[in-house]
Structures are given as structure tokens and as C-alpha cells.
Amino acid sequence: MASAGAQMKRQSRSNGTVTIRDIAGKAGFSPSTVSIVLNNAPLARYIPAETKERIHKVARQLGYRPNQLARSLRSQRNHTIGLIVFNITDPFCTPILHGIETALYQASYISLLADAHNDRSRFERYLEMLLERRVEGLIVVANWLVVQIDLLADLENRSIPTAVIGRKLSLGAVSSVMVDNEAGARMAVEHLYSLGHREIAFLRGPKVLVDTGQRWRGIRSFAQSTGLALDPKLILDLPKSFDPNEGFDAGFRLTEELLRRKLHFTALVAFDDVTALGAMRALTVAGVKVPQQCSVIGFDDVAPAALSFPPLTTIRQPMETMGACAVGLVADAIAESQTLPLHRKLAPELVVRQSTTKPATESQ
Amino acid sequence: MASAGAQMKRQSRSNGTVTIRDIAGKAGFSPSTVSIVLNNAPLARYIPAETKERIHKVARQLGYRPNQLARSLRSQRNHTIGLIVFNITDPFCTPILHGIETALYQASYISLLADAHNDRSRFERYLEMLLERRVEGLIVVANWLVVQIDLLADLENRSIPTAVIGRKLSLGAVSSVMVDNEAGARMAVEHLYSLGHREIAFLRGPKVLVDTGQRWRGIRSFAQSTGLALDPKLILDLPKSFDPNEGFDAGFRLTEELLRRKLHFTALVAFDDVTALGAMRALTVAGVKVPQQCSVIGFDDVAPAALSFPPLTTIRQPMETMGACAVGLVADAIAESQTLPLHRKLAPELVVRQSTTKPATESQ
DNA sequence: TCCCGAAGTTCGATTTAAATG
DNA sequence: GCATTTAAATCGAACTTCGGG
Questions:
Q1: What's the CA gap between B169 and A53, in Å, rounded?
Q2: In B 67-106, which Cβ lie closer than 7 Å to strand D?
Q3: Arithmetic mean of pLDDT, A268-293
Q4: Mean pLDDT of the region B85-98
Q5: How far off is chain A from B304, nearest CA to CA, in Å?
Q6: In sequence order, which residues have a C-beta less than 8 Å from that of residue A151 and are 6 or more positions away?
Q7: What is the mean pLDDT of residues A259-288?
Q8: Which strand C nucleotides have any atom less than 7 A from protein CB atoms?
């Protein structure tokens, strides 16, 4: 009777999920044995092949699927990392995500995705959710991030390995992965300079972005070393914006402005590709031929850059590599439970397409 | 072997995480009481404000963060849905993800992201991982999906609410969200027809995609009802491909082919925007002006469509809405534990930009 | 079926120590 | 001691039950 009652205890599970106990019951062994066999734990050495087969067979029959929640609770590991992006619709974000995802898959991790929409409170809430779920690591894609994320350093980050892509936090144990903005910008002007351009317009990024300053520094240093004159009238700044996709309109308008002022320039360096596409449109609409009458160069090498007409010359950020690199940093930190932050600065690459050429021999 | 920490019943936790017991110990109450207070459970009615404050204060001091793994194990809910995409670099995918993410956030869900890379084994492994993590629902973004995903229907789907975006499975309890491809394609030809075009070229999609057949049906039905002649020589098919981004090259080459054969057409309907951009490039390179000498229309309205020159006229899929819709279906199914599959077909929208116009009065 | 709080069971799995022959 | 198996403790939280004012 007593045993019967005990058996009744866990009978049909409304849930429909199969537990290790169900297998134990049907196979005639204890849950411990089943666990040992299914995990091929050290103790499984002593278990006869017959028993093992039996258990495996029943597990297969019942369609057993181990509950990772329970397993994680016990093992304190869940093979999950949190992935916070600051705007998933940013074309710059996509290849990074791809790189991250591919690297995570190989490392048998999976990611909890959070899009902060460039909003601080949303970022904070997501961060809290991820921490409550006990993610083992955190990757933040901070491209075009306008809000401050110092809380990453403040908060609790001492304990959980974190990497930021596109930013470098001065405080805290946060690793970072960035492109070498200064070198990239230098490559851009250098490309135009070596083609013969001397009157170059610049659409700089919004001041709030770190990239803006870094890239400008690269341009200035090149100008100084070669004696290239930077005409202040040809230097415009993109307005602060929370949406990278607005760069197109901004680039369009700023270029219109340059043309309206009848300023003379044979080439234009845009802050990024989307801005460059906007600039190209303004030039084309105004009857200025790209690249014959004006060369245009972008930055990033996002997907639309190769699809435009003419295809855009640009400075490529190794986005997939950056994603993979961040995963590497976080995965290593988890494996070795180290906390010292590492900072990677990756090299950009000049991609010459058809939006740049030598300046026309005689004026515009 | 066993460290001192392990022997001491429950003292400092190397982990660093604070448990409900730690609070209980420090506040001088039992874990049960702490749990009741922190969750404001029914029984908390009887607990004096003083006790509550004390417990809350200690929780705050210690930086307590409830372990959702433990909570989920107990409650059988984890507020997580699995999100499988078939290629995150597809520009079509991005706005859908955005729509999904926004809707999930409002519903207090978070998503486990999986990119199947259009690979069946990878899809299967991810599916397994998600099920083991006991996701409450599943959303599959099946755009440009070449592999079969019948396993969704087969497998275990009876139990977990699932929605597919961009496909409709005949079997199983899988809900679906699709654009009305037939209506969309009809709108595209109708737009060109009403502008006066009669010689129209078509770049159809790969045969393996369901969308291809549906869109072609829309075009045929329009042609029949108006008497528009469809010249077989002007109808080409995109090759099978596992990467939607290859559509650009394919569109380029097929259009080159049309031009090389000296075929006459005043407008071109592309399978999707990326293909259309490829076609526009081929036309432009060949000296055919778009839209003056040849109109081009796409499908989808992905981001690059608005950035091209000329900006692309296209049939817009309500991608964000589709994402939100899928979330709605899944969330409702979870809440009401219903299993009957629902199928939503959303209306497309004609977006007239500048790649289409009236045909030139006299031939090409 | 008032007030206050604690003890004990449960979720599903892993792992230790221990019990059999 | 060895091969074979299992009871019991554990992970962290929630909830049911119970015992004194």
C-alpha cells in the first residue's frame, strides 16, 4: 500500500515533459543511476552495458530532454551570455551580431538578446533582467550609443565578464573591442590625398560619439604631416541623433548646404557610409557627378555601401571579427575566471570601389 | 580536497551572489518569510510593516537579485521565447527582429536568439537547445528559407506555441504570419501598367521559395484580367541560393542578359529589393536611364531601397508589424494555453519613389 | 479562517556517501 | 576491496502547512 501510494505520487504529469524520474520508473532503476548513465559520469564505469542500454532506450522512447534550468541551478552554469545592442536596425550592427552568433555557436553558448533602443532606462531594465537570469557573460554592442553606460562599470560588473564593442570604458573591469578609428580616418584622407585631392570637405560625426573625435584626430594628424590645408568652411558636423539611420538625411542636408554656399571641393569624407550615401544623393541631385566631379568616401562598409551607385569607396571595419573577438574575450574570462579587462583595437581596411577617383584636371 | 568554504555549512559564497537565505540570516527571519515579503505574496498581509521594511532594507543592502533559474524551475515559467532566424544579415530580417523585440519587451519577455544560417543541422541543434531551456514559445523568421522545416511540425510542437514568419506549414499546430504576396505582386504590375507600361520584364525568385510562386500567381492573374501580355522571353528566374544578399549579383547578371539579347522592355519587376538594386546597376552601367528609359520596382522595402539612386519604388512588407503579430500570436497562445494554429496574412503597401515613371513616348 | 512566523515540500537534475551482494 | 546501485543532500526560490500568540 505504502509503495503504491508512493508510486501514485508522481504519475501523469499534466505538463507533458519527461523527467529523469519517469525514465527511472520505467526502466526500473533509481534517478541517480539514470543521471549517471545519461551523463556518462565517472561512476558510469561500474555500470554494466546492459543497464546502460536499457536506460538509453527508455530515454529515447520517452523523448527525454534534460531540463537545463534544473541543470543550471545545480551546476551554476547556463552557457548563456547576454547580448545588448543599441539599435538592431543599424546596418552596422548586423554583421557584428553575425560574428558574435557564429562564435557563440562554436563555443556552445547561446545568447539572450536585448535591444536597448538607445534608451537608458531600457538598458538598465534589460541589464537587470539578464543578471537575474545569471548570464555568464555580457556583450554590449555600443555603436552609435548616445547614452552613457557607466553603470556597466559601476553596477556589479566586477563579477561577470563583460565586453563592449565600439566603446572603451575608462572605469571598471570591462573589456573592449574597437576599430582603430584614428588610423581608419587617416587612411581615408590619405587615399584622397594620394589621388591628388587638396580641397576636401568633411562631414564629421555627432560630437557625442567617441568615434567622431578619434577619427578627426587621425585626419588632423595626416593633414599636419603632409601640409594639407583643412578649410574650416568645408567642415560640418552631423547633429546629435539617436538613430544612425537618420545619417542619410543629415548627410544629404549638410552636402546641400555646402553646395548652396558655392564652396569648392573635389572630394568629401563622410563620417560613415550612410552619411556618405546621403551626400552622394545630394551631389547627384545637384548635377555633380560622383566620382568625376567629386569623390566621396565613407566609413564602416555596411551592406548598402556596396549596393549603391556608384558603389561606395569606404574604410571597412572588420565587424564580424569584432564580434568574434568580443566572444573570445568573454569566453576566456569565463573559462579562466579572470577579471582583468583587455582592450583590443582592430585594424580597418581601405575598400576602393567607384566613388573615388582623381580630381578633374581643371577646377570643378 | 573539500575547501574550508565547502565544509562550513553556508558561509561566504565564493560565487558572490546573494540568496534569500543570506537575507534571512542577516535580517533574523526565515527564508520563507523573506520570500513572502519580497514577493508581496498573499500571506504578506499578516506581516507587520516593521518586519517588511527590515527585510527590504537588508535585501537592498546586500544587492539581492532573485535567481530566475530557481524561480523558473519552481514556477514552470521563464518568460523566454526562442527566436530562430535564417540569416541575420538579411536586411529583410532586421525590421522583423525589431518588431519582435519591441513587442516582447512590452510583454516582459526576453528572447534567446539563434541564427540557423539556413542550415538544417544547425537549425535542429538550436531547436533542441531552445527546447531544453524550456522556452515558452518559439518564433521562426523563415524568410529566404531554403531548407525544409517540417520538423517543427513533426517534432514536439504539439506542446509549445510556435509562429513562423514568412511561411505557412501545412502540418502541425504552427501559426504563421505572411504578407499577401499575391496581392503585393499584383500591385507592382498594376502600378507599372497604370503608368502605361506594356512591355515588362520579370526577374522571378528562386523556385524553392514559396513567395516566388505566390507572387507570380498575382502577376498572372492581373495579366489575365487586363489582357497584358507576358512575354516568356522577358521572364527570368533567380538561381537557388542560400544567401539573400547574393540577389544583387543575380539581379545584375540576369538584367545584363536581357540587355545582351537586345530585348525590348520599358519596365522591370524584380523579385525583391536587393535584386532590383542589382538590376538598376546593370541598367545604369549599360547606359539605360532609370526611370526615364526603364522603370524598376522591387519588393520588401528594406533599408537600402530608400538609400539607392534613384530611390527604389517598391512593395512594402509591414515587417515590424509582422514581428509584433507573431509575438501576439505566441503570447496569446501561452496565456490561454490554446494550441489551435492561427494564420495571418498581412496587406502589403505600394511605396512610390523615383525608380518608376511613365514609359518614354517613343520606344526605348 | 485573526496574527505572525517557521518548517517542510517541491521544481529537475547532479553528486556524495553509503548500502548492497 | 570490488562491482553495482541508491538514498540523501544540494542548487534558490515559492508555496503549503503547521504551531504558537
A1: 36
A2: 67, 70-71, 73-75
A3: 97
A4: 95
A5: 5
A6: A123, A124, A127
A7: 97
A8: 3-8, 10-17
pLDDT tens digit sequence for A168-227: 887 778 899 999 999 999 999 999 999 999 999 999 999 989 999 999 999 999 999 999
> In one letter, which amino acid is A266?
T
Ramachandran region, residue A47 (left: φ > 0; alpha: ψ -120 to 50; beta: rest): beta
Report angle CA A92, A98, A99 to the nearest 5 degrees: 95
Nearest to B69 among A83, A102, A134 (CB): A134
Give Cβ neighbours of residue B234 (< 8 Å, ≥ 6 apart): B199, B200, B201, B202, B258, B263, B265
A8 pLDDT tier (thresholds 50, 70, 90): very low
List CB contacts (< 8 A) between A281 and chain B. 307, 309
> Nearest CA of chain A to the CA of B224: how many Å?
35
Chain A's closest residue to B62, CA to CA, is A156
Q: For B182-216, write each residue's pLDDT tens digit.
A: 999 999 999 999 999 999 999 999 998 999 999 99
Give the pLDDT confidence score for residue A156 in this predicted structure: 59
% of chain A exceeding 90 in pLDDT = 81
* Burial per residue of A261-295, b for 16 or more beta-carbon CB atoms within 10 angstroms, e otherwise: eeeebbbbbbbbbbbbbbbbbbbbeeeeebbebbb
The predicted pLDDT at position B149 comes to: 72
CA distance B225 to chain A (A): 36
Q: Is the model more confident about B330 or about B151?
A: B330
Looking at residue B335, its pLDDT comes to 93
CB contact under 8 A, A113 and B98: no
pLDDT, tens digit (0-9, with 9 covering 90-100), for A108-149: 999 999 999 989 899 999 999 999 999 999 999 998 877 777
Query: Three cell numbers at B59?
Result: 535585501
Does the C-beta of B17 come within 7 A of strand D?
A: yes
Cα–Cα separations (whole angstroms), residue A194 to A217, A228, A270, A280: 19, 11, 18, 21
CB-based contacts of A212: which residues, under 8 Å, 6+ apart? A204, A205, A206, A237, A271
Residues B116, B114: Cα–Cα separation, whole Å: 6
Q: How far, in whole angstroms, is CA A332 from its chain's centroid?
A: 18
Gyration radius from chain A CA atoms: 28
B18 CA to C3 C1', in Å? 30
Q: Taking the C1' atom of D11, which residue's CA lies nearest? A: A74
Domains of chain B: 4-66 (1.10.260.40), 79-180+319-348 (3.40.50.2300), 181-316+350-363 (3.40.50.2300)
pLDDT tens digits along A143-183: 887 777 766 665 655 689 999 999 988 777 889 999 999 99
- Is A73 within 7 A of strand C by CB distance? yes
Pick the residue from chain A with its C-alpha nearest to B74: A70
Look at chain B and count its residues.
364
- Tell me how long chain A is: 364
User: Lowest mean pLDDT: which of A300-304, B11-15, B73-77, B255-259?
Assistant: B11-15
Q: Is A340 exposed, middle or buried (0-12, 13-18, 19+ CB in 10 A)?
A: exposed
With a cut of 80, say whether residue A47 has pLDDT above it. Answer: yes
- Please report, for residues B6, B234, B282, the alpha-carbon distance to residue B261 in angstroms, rounded to integers and kept in the order given: 80, 10, 14
